[in-house]
Amino acid sequence: MRHIYTVFGVVCVMSLSCVTRVWAQAKFEPDAEIVKVGDVAFQSQKRFVLGFRNKGDKPMRILKVNPSCACLDVRYPQEAIPAGAHSEVQFTFSAEQLGSFYKDVEILTDASEEPVYMAIQGNVVTEVIDLGEDYPIDLGNVCLQTNYVEFDDVNRGDKPSVEIAVANRERTAYRPVLMHLPPYLSAESVPTDIPGGMTGRIRLTLNSEKLPQLGLNQTSVYLARYVGDKVSDTNEIYVNAVLLPDFSHLTEEQKANAPDLRIETNEIDLGQVGQREKVSQTIVLHNVGKSPLHFRQVQVFNKAVSVSLGNRVLRPGKSTKLKVTIHARYLDKAKSRPRVLLITDDPKHSKEVIHIKVQP
Predict the structure, then answer these.
(1) What is the pTM of this model?
(2) CB-based contacts of 253: which residues, under 8 Å, 6+ apart?
(3) 20, 38, 161, 276: which could form a disulfide with 169 (CB 3.0–4.6 Å)?
């Protein structure tokens, strides 16, 4: 019987090893197999960035790329792409022939013996309308006025709306669709279908009743540029909403005896980061009111900022320190201005923002 157990144990170990070998593999997954890039000026060169992700559980390396024609120059990462990491392939297209085009690239990796294909599709025209000033966010077939939306000073029950202008660079109609909308956001396109070469608007409406917390609520939504589009850094739209506390229930006596927040400064100038990994500054917060002051939320608007607060509750006449730190490695990736948000139970200063000036 002992021999049977031994053999069974060996078989189990071998089986688990086989399973490990089967599942431990890399996988190249493009953000989009075909990217519509709109109009390109005749006899010009234009660069396009196409994203992909290693969806496997081991590092992956691109071995070789084979463009479909000499009009494409392709640059790709030479280093291994870690499991779960996102990276990019750069296409430089030389527009030497008028008319529509479809150009693909065969990509060979060590993740599979089968190649993966990524392509760009568009039109070469004699003249391209420059939308740069009014629509600086270039997504290829469409351009956006902005990819950052903020609903500021929202009270529970409010339903504010914000519009994002959209320019359709295609010759056919385009219907904007936002993916990954949270329960507190709804979206509609005006008009529903934007004609080719025309502009429209995406209207985002916030239902404050469904916001999950006081203070800063952050999310990302993604604009589908075409049917079957996937989420990626390229088509990401950042949405912030700041929900304020409700003091409508307070009596006049309670207001007269409320806490009173005083901040040493609402603006920090950290200068230039230079070669340093991080820079910091400390400011003092005072409670000059008649009741204890509670910091309900201490939040930052992007990950380049971190904070440390001495005390979350301040008795009358007491003070505490707030340390603000900027991390250099995240500065270039930050989409919003570096700020610190304080939400308190002081009716006169329920929301305080500390603005941070900093240079890379």
Answers:
(1) 0.73
(2) none
(3) 38
